[in-house]
């Protein structure tokens, strides 16, 4: 069941840094547009890695935590439930080695269960309304032509399982210190992204 809220996934392993600040500003933008926003810090949820066991490929009518053999044992489904039910979905993530951080990627790998369910023709998944996701990527590295490319591709195809196209991410380079994302123009751009996300979801 869709909720009348936005969810912002804060994906950094580090507490109180640039990504947490960006997540907070995204939520501020949603609220300025008249919406309600929940910030979920991925680092606070224990997610076990995919076992590649094939359980989710077996035919059946499973739903919810039963989609994955690991489902009852960790917090992956709590994160998926927020993703499945939020009216607007936003991500704030650092870039580690040209890609998404490991805790986020571990959760994304567990999304294999939704790829399998969609391939099996699960009607409950096919019935999801199309929603557009937004993302802010923050990199410490100041250079690199393809610095954000791997992260964007992975996040885009993960969200495809949820009928959720990803808008071109808002990206920042050369911000390595925890307080580097403090420029007023950057703040305004991130708040505006949150605002537009909610307005377009209305």
Overview features:
single chain, 202 residues, alpha/beta, Rossmann fold, 5 strands, oxidoreductase activity, ISF_SsuE-like, FMN_Rdtase-like_dom, Flavoprotein-like_sf, FMN
Report on this model:
The protein has 202 residues and is of the alpha/beta class. It has a single domain (6-201), classed as Rossmann fold, CATH 3.40.50.360. The chain is 37% helix and 13% strand. The protein has a five-stranded parallel beta sheet with strand order 2-1-3-4-5, with helices on both faces. Helix 1 packs across helix 7.
Task: Summarize it.
With 202 residues, this protein is an alpha/beta fold. Helix content is 37%, strand content 13%.
What are the SSEs and their pairings?
Elements: E1 6-10, H1 18-32, E2 37-41, H2 76-85, E3 88-94, H3 102-109, H4 112-119, H5 123-126, E4 133-138, H6 149-160, E5 170-172, H7 184-201
Parallel strand pairs: 1-2, 1-3, 3-4, 4-5
Helix pairs in contact: 1-7
């Amino acid at each position: 069941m869709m909720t009348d809220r936005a969810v912002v996934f804060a994906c950094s392993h580090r507490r109180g840094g640039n990504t947490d600040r960006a997540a907070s500003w995204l939520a501020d933008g949603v609220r300025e547009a008249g919406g309600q926003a929940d910030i979920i810090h991925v680092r606070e949820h224990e997610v076990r890695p995919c076992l590649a066991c094939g359980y989710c490929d077996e035919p059946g009518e499973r739903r919810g935590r039963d989609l994955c053999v690991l489902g009852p044992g960790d917090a992956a489904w709590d994160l998926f439930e927020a993703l499945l039910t939020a009216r607007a979905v936003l991500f704030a993530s650092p870039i580690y080695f040209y890609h998404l951080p490991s805790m986020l990627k571990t959760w994304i790998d567990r999304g294999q269960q939704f790829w399998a369910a969609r391939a099996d023709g699960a009607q409950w998944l096919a019935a999801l309304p199309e929603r557009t996701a937004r993302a802010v990527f923050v990199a410490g590295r100041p250079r690199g032509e393809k610095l954000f490319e791997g992260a964007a591709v992975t996040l885009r195809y993960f969200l495809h399982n949820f009928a959720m196209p990803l808008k071109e991410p808002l990206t920042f380079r050369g911000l390595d210190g925890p307080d580097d994302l403090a420029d007023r123009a950057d703040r305004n751009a991130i708040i505006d992204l949150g605002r537009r996300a909610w307005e377009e979801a209305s």
